[in-house]
């Protein structure tokens, strides 16, 4: 097979060279890697011309519309879990293109990051850093987390780990999931979770059903000392409503690793004076989680051998 990555990033080149390109070429396949941003949709489509499959990193945004269909691709191998955000699944299905991902590759890393953001906001770490760097010595007051309630929205692989970590910290943990899950915490309705939780951590996949699911009505149920953490997808939240609540002091603060536009554009972030901890979508980005590049390459090898793995229906 001839495979191309049209949206490569220089920071990943050595990993991909070692863990993807070399194994594929040893198996008789071709792998090409492009780091330059494509100028427009037509340039992206042209870059993928003559290849059988696409290796998608996702750092340059979604696969341009029409690319899969016009190149009659056989395979799209997405580097990560959230392929639906970057790959037009309807276009792929209409073309007969197989789409694969790497499920549950970084659940521990993302769960740890959610907890890190929770602590950063509760103890006002970003604000404290600024105080020290400005030569001041103001003692800002934070929140102790032990004994407070943690509400986990979405009890999949990541949410389950957050539940366990929260309990390890001495928090009273509840969760909401569409169906009952075998986790050591009680399931409650969303309204109750938002009304009674001191920290709410979001772990939902973004779909048409979950789009802006965490809307103004739910957000306004949060108390003045509540913290919202989102390491899932920004699109599941009404971010305008969230920013208003943060700016007005209606909630204690928020820890955000995901944004509707990445990198964010002016005017879309919480006000700078707010108690927030913002990170550039790095919840998954640890040494161990970088294994995702190799696993996405193995999906290509499995597909070429006639035994596809991790296919998204």
Question: SSE layout and pairings?
Answer:
Layout: E1 2-5, H1 13-26, E2 30-33, H2 41-47, E3 53-56, H3 67-70, E4 75-78, H4 89-95, E5 98-100, H5 107-122, H6 125-133, E6 149-153, H7 157-168, E7 172-176, H8 190-196, E8 199-202, H9 216-219, E9 227-230, H10 239-248, E10 253-256, E11 276-278, H11 292-304
Helix pairs in contact: 1-11, 5-7
Q: What would you note in describing this structure?
A:
Helix content is 33%, strand content 14%. It is elongated. The strands form two sheets. A six-stranded parallel sheet has the order 7-6-8-9-10-11, sandwiched between helices. The protein has eleven helices and eleven strands. The protein has 313 residues and is of the alpha/beta class. Helix 1 packs parallel to helix 11 (292-304) and helix 5 packs across helix 7. The two termini are 22 Å apart. The protein has two domains: 2-105 and 287-304, NAD(P)-binding Rossmann-like Domain (Rossmann fold); 107-278, NAD(P)-binding Rossmann-like Domain (Rossmann fold, 3-Layer(aba) Sandwich), CATH 3.40.50.
Quick structural summary:
The chain has 313 residues and is an alpha/beta fold. It folds into 2 domains: 2-105 and 287-304, NAD(P)-binding Rossmann-like Domain (Rossmann fold, 3-Layer(aba) Sandwich), CATH 3.40.50.720; 107-278, NAD(P)-binding Rossmann-like Domain (Rossmann fold, 3-Layer(aba) Sandwich), CATH 3.40.50.720. Helix content is 33%, strand content 14%.
């Amino acid at each position: 097979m001839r495979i191309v990555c049209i949206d490569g990033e220089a920071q990943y080149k050595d990993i991909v060279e070692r863990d993807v390109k070399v194994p594929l070429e040893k198996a008789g396949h071709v792998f090409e890697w492009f780091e330059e941003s494509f100028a427009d949709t037509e340039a992206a489509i042209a870059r993928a011309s003559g290849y059988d499959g696409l290796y998608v990193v996702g750092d340059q945004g979604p696969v341009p519309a029409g690319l899969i269909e016009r190149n009659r691709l056989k395979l799209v191998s997405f580097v990560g879990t959230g392929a639906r955000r970057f790959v037009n699944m309807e276009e792929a299905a209409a073309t007969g293109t197989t789409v694969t991902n790497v499920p549950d590759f970084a659940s521990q890393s993302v769960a740890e990051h959610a907890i890190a953001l929770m602590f950063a906001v509760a103890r006002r770490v970003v604000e404290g850093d600024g105080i020290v760097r400005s030569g001041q010595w103001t003692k800002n007051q934070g929140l102790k987390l032990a004994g407070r309630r943690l509400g986990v929205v979405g009890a999949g692989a990541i949410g389950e780990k957050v539940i366990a970590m929260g309990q390890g910290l001495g928090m009273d943990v509840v969760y909401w999931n569409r169906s009952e899950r075998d986790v050591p915490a009680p399931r409650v309705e969303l309204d109750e979770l938002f009304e009674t939780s001191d920290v709410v951590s979001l772990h939902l996949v973004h779909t048409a059903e979950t789009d802006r699911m965490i809307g103004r009505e739910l957000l306004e149920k949060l108390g003045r000392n509540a913290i919202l953490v989102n390491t899932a997808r920004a699109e599941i939240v009404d971010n305008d409503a969230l920013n208003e609540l943060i700016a007005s002091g209606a909630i204690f603060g928020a820890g955000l690793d995901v944004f509707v536009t990445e990198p964010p554009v002016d005017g879309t972030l919480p006000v700078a004076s707010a108690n927030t901890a913002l990170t550039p979508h790095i919840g998954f980005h640890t040494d161990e989680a970088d294994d995702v590049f190799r696993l996405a390459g193995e999906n290509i090898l499995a597909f070429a051998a006639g035994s596809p793995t991790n296919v998204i229906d």
